Amino acid sequence: MKRVVLLALLVVLLSLIYRAIIPPPPRSCSTAGVPSQTPKIKLRDGRNLVYKEYGVPKNIAKYNVIYVHSFGGSKFEASLIIPQAIEELGVYFVSFDRPGYGKSDPHPKRSFKSLALDIEEVADQLELGNKFYVIGFAMGAHFVWGCLKYIPHRLAGAALLAPAINYWWPGFPSNLSKEAYDKQLIRDQWVYKVAYYAPWLMYWWNTQQYFPGFSVITGEFKLSQKDLKIAYSLDEMQLQQAYVTQQGEFESLHRDLIIGFGKPEFDPMDMKNPFYNNDANIHLWHGVEDGIVSVKLQNFIAKKNPWINYHELQDAGHLFPCGDDSIKYDIWKALLNHEKK
């Protein structure tokens, strides 16, 4: 009898553990119900990506640019980094909900490579030409490394704005990455460890009540004084939160953490210049006062990749792309006018 009771208790316990660590399936967000005025693309594998257009009409544009949104962002985020002179620059600018975000279908096998190929297919279906520009912010810029790795032949240029960093990239000297890692909030250090060592625990870690979750999800991350001023003006972004995670947090936020901070798909510091004739214009921008992503590690990456134009902003934090219009304009002019270091 005792054996039967123990077996029953074990089954119940395993069931509870399974429920705790296995994320629920993404909530249905069929684009069949998306209003017809909301443009979408059906990819070759059947997934839908929903997108939004900015700037001048495509048929009169001088430049075609694709935007890759940040962690917790969406296609609407692009409006925050556009300078007032976007039409004067002659830019057609398109942003899309990354897989699992907003109304874009999830991709359980999402990776740096799959997202780069999605971006290439977006460009092809929208007929943006053989070459186009890419801009990414924070986690979005992190994924732009995938474009440089997998589709460099399609790029006229790229701007990486405060890109996230994987502390496990092997190209970092161990003392340098440890110094930067130790400066992160303890709660975030644990999330990075879960992403690397036990990604199957990511859902549980960010939904359990025993330990604090990832600070960017809970809204308790470190911001500089300059960032705080910018953050207070980002109501437009905050209002989109329900839209961003409408399919659930796992396929959007948690999967980002697993891909971005888990076992590296590749190391940007191992990359050779893919633009042999300097026929693309690559820029990396970072604020010295960034409290989320280490400027020291960013500086090291830039030195390992001298073919990238590196801009270190002395009086800026993490949110500089959403701040002063003059900085936004500088970013766009540098990218589109092929300014050199």
Characterize the structure shown.
This is AB hydrolase-1 domain-containing protein. The chain has 341 residues and is α/β, with parallel strands linked by helices. It has a single domain, classed as 3-Layer(aba) Sandwich (Rossmann fold), CATH 3.40.50.1820. The chain is built from 13 helices and 8 strands. The protein has an 8-stranded mixed beta sheet with strand order 1-2-4-3-5-6-7-8, sandwiched between helices. Helix 3 links the parallel strand 5 and strand 6. Helix 2 crosses helix 3 and helix 5 crosses helix 11. The longest helix has 20 residues. The chain is globular. It starts with a helix and ends in a 5-residue tail after the last helix. About 4% of the residues have low confidence.
Structure at a glance:
With 341 residues, this protein is of the alpha/beta class. The chain has 13 helices and 8 strands. The chain is globular and about 75 Å long.
Distance between the termini: 78 Å
**Biggest sheet, in brief?**
8 strands, mixed
Question: What is the C-level CATH assignment?
Answer: Alpha Beta
**CATH fold name:** Rossmann fold
Structural class by sheet pairing and helices: alpha/beta
How many distinct beta strands? Answer: 8
Main traits of this protein?
341 residues, alpha/beta, Rossmann fold, eight-stranded mixed beta sheet, 13 helices, 8 strands, globular, AB hydrolase-1 domain-containing protein, AB_hydrolase_fold, signal, hydrolase activity
Chain-wise SSE layout:
Layout: H1 2-21, E1 40-42, E2 48-55, E3 63-68, E4 91-96, H2 112-125, E5 132-137, H3 139-150, E6 155-161, H4 174-182, H5 186-197, H6 202-205, H7 215-218, H8 225-231, H9 235-238, H10 241-244, H11 250-261, E7 281-287, H12 295-304, E8 309-313, H13 325-336
Parallel strand pairs: 3-4, 3-5, 5-6, 6-7, 7-8
Antiparallel strand pairs: 1-2, 2-4
Helix pairs in contact: 2-3, 5-11
Keywords: Signal
Protein name: AB hydrolase-1 domain-containing protein
Pfam family, one: Abhydrolase_1
